[in-house]
Design goal:
With about 500 residues, this protein is of the alpha+beta class. The chain has three domains: about 30-120 and about 130-155, no CATH class; about 170-350, Immunoglobulin-like; about 360-500, OmpA-like domain (60s Ribosomal Protein L30, Chain: A), CATH 3.30.1330. Helices cover about 45% and strands about 15% of the residues. It contains twelve helices and 13 strands. The strands form three sheets. It has a five-stranded mixed beta sheet with strand order 3-9-8-5-6. A four-stranded mixed beta sheet has the order 2-1-4-7, with no helix packed on it. The longest helix has about 35 residues, at about 35-65. It is elongated, with a radius of gyration of 39 Å. The relative contact order is 0.07.
């Protein structure tokens, strides 16, 4: 409170001083004469212009030198992408020529203000035309501009070239701007991004991915951008709502994200995050603590990370559109890749939005086949009879009946393949239920379910002499019947290897 009053008091005093100076100046003008005061003012202002020119230009040079290690393109902030050096060179050349113009213009501006300040008896000269001067100030900028434009065009063609169709090695990812976050999408093992349709955008499907397109099934959506060093990257860039801008400052990547008009950028990262940190480590500016209030906090170089930002003012939450970018070695990238799960499998599979919920995917069929074969191998190697039992987790029936569901055929076909592989194998198919309902009804249902599996296998060409079917009802539970989870485990179909 007291500090605020002191500040207000100082401001009032400054206003009073300024008013009094004005009054004194007005009084002096009346005493000395208006013309003499005006000439003195002209001379004084001319000198002040020279002083300001010197201070201003010295400050510009000093500040550029003092803060150079914080600027992109200088000191530790060299480009971290293959094309970045071209853009930095273009910027430096442009800065060289515009810097010359900047210095000459300001020297002329303030020197002329001093040299031609108003003097007694001096009349200004009017020069209506000067061919030589006009040719100079037209031709010189024109030549310089032509040089800069041509150099810029060459840089543009080099930087904005797309990937070729001649088998060029690259990976493609996608970034979609939205108020106020980025949606990232990577291709899965197939290396291809699936199709999208904005009409399919929902709360569960934020990118409008078309789940009938097989290429979408393994795409995943990570929280951060992780890329392997030395790999050419093509980024698809788009937006869901308003204009955004995909900006990777350290890689000299900057491209608008426009709703309804996909854009792209191609770049190759050449420095890992850790390598960039080690470069920053050499400079005293980055030895400062991350938290100025805590001298023991990690130094700035150690906490540095590349980032993705939005460089378009897209609304009040614009500041939050920041994503971490990690550039790692190929081995680190492959390890990270293995940890990722497809968005379809983690968020869409089996839901109401899944157009494939009534069918199995190829990858699921293959995985179930592998699991089944492992179970068979384990049972064949077992010595005890109760260890030769294989539970058929994916053989299911319609509720309260012995009708096999459509998806059961995949597991049953695995049994057929196994019996064909081992022609001397005989098995017993067993059906089991929980203890809900009457004992006799449960026994009858389990027996019919075992026979349904028996009939499917014989229908596929397996000899009846190699099969037996029996229902055990609720008599052989493998878990408690006091919980729904336990009862679900007791409702099962399995087979036991009798001979092999």
């Amino acid at each position: 409170m007291s500090t605020g009053l002191i500040i207000i008091g100082c401001l009032i005093l400054i206003v009073i001083v300024v008013v009094q100076i004005g009054k004194v100046t007005e009084l002096a003008a009346k005493i000395r004469g208006e013309e003499e005061v005006q000439l003195e003012s002209n001379r004084r202002n001319g000198l002040l212009m020279l002083v300001f020119m010197v201070v201003f230009l010295v400050y510009c040079v000093w500040s550029a030198m003092h803060y150079k290690n914080w600027m992109l393109g200088y000191g530790p902030h060299e480009a971290a992408s293959a094309h970045g050096g071209v853009l930095d060179s273009l910027f430096n050349v442009t800065l060289f020529f515009t810097g010359i113009v900047f210095i000459i213009t300001h020297i002329a501006l303030f020197w002329f203000a001093y040299k031609y300040h108003g003097r007694k008896g001096v009349i200004s000269t009017f020069i209506p035309h000067d061919n030589k001067l006009e040719i100079i100030w037209t031709a010189v900028p024109a030549v310089v501009m032509c040089f800069l434009v041509i150099r810029g065009l060459v840089a543009w063609n080099e930087v904005m070239g797309d990937v070729s169709d001649s088998g060029e090695d690259y990976m493609e990812i996608e970034a979609t701007g939205s108020q106020f976050l980025w949606y990232l999408r990577y291709p899965g093992p197939d290396g291809k991004l699936g199709a999208r349709d904005y009409k399919m955008i929902t709360g569960k499907n934020p990118l409008g991915q078309d789940w009938t397109d097989d290429k979408n099934l393994d795409d995943f959506q990570p929280n951060d951008i992780v890329l392997p060093v030395g790999k050419k990257i093509r980024v698809r860039i788009t937006a869901r709502d308003v204009l955004h801008n995909f900006f990777l400052p350290h890689f000299r990547v900057k491209m608008d994200a426009v709703p309804g008009m996909p854009t792209y950028f191609v770049f190759t990262p050449i420095k890992t995050t850790e390598e960039y940190r080690q470069e920053l480590r050499k400079y005293p500016e980055y030895q400062q603590p991350t938290d100025p209030k805590d001298p023991t906090s990690e130094p700035l170089w150690k906490t540095f990370n590349y980032e993705l930002a939005c460089a378009e003012l897209c609304g009040k939450g614009h500041f939050s559109m920041r994503k971490l970018v990690r550039i790692v070695s190929e081995d680190e990238y492959n390890a990270w890749l293995k940890e990722q799960q497809s968005y379809y499998m983690s968020s869409i599979r089996g839901s109401d939005e899944d157009p494939r919920k009534d069918e199995l995917l190829g990858i699921e069929i293959e995985q179930r086949k592998q699991d089944f074969n492992l179970a068979v191998e384990k049972a064949l190697a077992a010595e005890k009879a109760d260890e030769k039992i294989i539970r058929l987790n994916y053989v299911t029936f319609e509720t309260g009946s012995a009708n096999l569901t459509a998806l059961s055929k995949y597991e049953l076909d695995n049994i057929v393949a196994t019996l064909n592989k081992f022609p001397n194998m005989t098995i017993e198919v067993a059906g089991h239920t929980d203890n809900e309902g009457e004992d006799a009804a449960n026994l009858f249902l389990s027996d019919n379910r075992a026979k349904a599996v028996y009939n499917y296998l014989t229908g596929k060409g397996i000899l009846q002499s190699r099969l037996t079917a029996k229902g055990y009802g609720e008599n052989r539970p493998i878990d408690t019947n006091d919980t729904e989870e336990g009862r679900a485990k007791n409702r099962r179909t399995e087979f036991q290897i009798l001979t092999q």
